[in-house]
Amino acid sequence: MVDIITAITGIVLVLIALLCFNFAIIFQKIGLKEGPEITFDKGIKGILKSFKEIIKNKWWALGAVLGVIAWFPYIMSIGLVGVMVSLPINSLGIIIMVLAANRLLGEKIKWYEFLAIIVLAISPVLIVLAGISNIVIDLHLFVFPLIIFLAITFSITIFCLILSLKKRGTNSEGFFIMLTGSFLLALGNVFTNILAQAVIQANIQLTWYIWAEIFFGIFWFDYNHLWVFIGWWGLAICNMSSFAFYQSAFQKSRVAVVFPVFNSIGLMVPLIAGIFVFQQTFNNYFLFFLAIFIIFIGTSALGRFQYLEQELEQKL
Question: Which helix H or strand E contains 196, and what residues bound it?
Answer without folding.
Answer: helix 173-201
